[in-house]
Structures
1.
Amino acid sequence: MKDKNLPNNYSLLSLEELTYEANKMIEELENQKDLENSLEKYQDLVKLNNIIEKKFQKNIKNINEKTKEKISKITLKKDAEKS
């Protein structure tokens, strides 16, 4: 499933905004009586979920990189103090 098929440009939204959109879709699906109409909405929800996962993984990667940089700086500072 291509993420680009979604009607809104979700790539510009934050994780919080994407989660809000997903929750709205879930609520709409729960209130839907006609299963024919809910199939397309469910597929959109799956696509949105994939976008959220990718964005979450990207954020985790950024946090890990920043943490490694900070640890490196601290380690270098301590090594310099020992010298």
Note: The chain has two helices and no strands.
2.
Amino acid sequence: MPLRFFGKDPETNGDNCPTVWLDEDKQELVVQGWKADVALQAQCLATGPIPDTEAVVRLPLRMAQQIREALDAAERSPVR
């Protein structure tokens, strides 16, 4: 199944970022966000390593509505 689009940052400056989708088949949120800077990554590393297959991204709180809608949809999706 294709990704279900939930929204872009309402204040995006034309770079189409950040964005939130839902992959209902895999029961996963998919996010596009701003890359974390070195200082933020260092703070995150204080709680454990970040695998090479993962990244720290930033999403603004103003996207809470899109994230809530995606989470609500994920909870309503049949568990696979």
Note: Strands lie at 4-8, 19-23, 28-32, 34-35, 57-58.
3.
Amino acid sequence: MQASEMWKVSTGEGVEVAVVDTGVSETPSLRGRVTTDGVPQHLSYKATEDYDGHGTSMAELIAGTGADDSLKGLAPDAKIVPYRIAMDDFDNKTERERAPDLAAVIRAIADSDVEIINMSFGTSIDHAAIREAIAYAHSKGKLMFAGTGNDAETKNFIGYPAAYPYVIGIAASDESGTVGRFSEHGNYVDLAAPGLDVPTWCDKNLRSYCESQGTSQATAIASASAALVWSAHPDWTANQVLASLIDTAGRDWAKDDPSTYLGYGLIRPRKVLEDSDYNPGAADTDPLARENTAGVVDEDGKPATPAASTSPSPEPSGKDASGGQTSAAAESDSSDDSTPWVATGAAAAVLVIGGGAVAVARSRRRA
């Protein structure tokens, strides 16, 4: 990615990224980068207390400063706005019940100054309230990134929120641009980013870094990439930022024939930043209109996620209108646990990936 070269043009300054995760603790790397300004009090429960280490790791990959020999993120001058939600590995029932509702969180972010929403988690359940909240955030001009999931070697289930219309599904690649074996695939994969051999905190104690892998990490790198571009072009819309990342993505296949595994290719913000005359296209043209209109299909080609609605998403009328809690107590649409899972786990790319060829066994997307 040649980060040092990109930082001569942009460091993400002026861009706010909401990290919806396990909370974000202020580490040396994040000192001065985390803000709760604009976070509604009823949704701010322990937002700056990470109970797992995952959210803090994602925040550092995005905006870490590298202070005191810590991790330096790809957009070190971006601001992190933390939200803590309950993940399925969080067994404290009281804490889970106090965690804010995900649909309400997304709507609050939509009404804030945040430009980018990072969601390095997922669930196999499609919740109507969350889908509607995401459509609302899209209507407010937000860019939303989510990991596609890490179970490709077992069940490869369709993961939400990555599979919702208007959410950019991120796959994980190694340093050669090859998709990770664990990275889930389908026609909801839109882009790929480094997600193997990435440094993150080993655990919730935040004492040391370990090598890790997953679409969570790739999602954070994608969010940081968007922050770099948006910082350099603050007058661009979310559509234009996304269009530029899709257009310049590394791929060895036709742009109009996205891969089931890597989508439109390996994200390369450098290719946008190095061209001062880059034309991002029309401000009101959705670069993923085809995918958002068609919706997600399963491996048999059957619809799995409703297509995007052309009507505005309604405002919630009260607490219940925002949908079930993203906790063990949530009402789910199937027998599966509806609680978001943290997309950690599964195989190789640190931040300094070159823009070389993308080699991967790929299949045509059905869209």
Note: The radius of gyration is 18 Å.
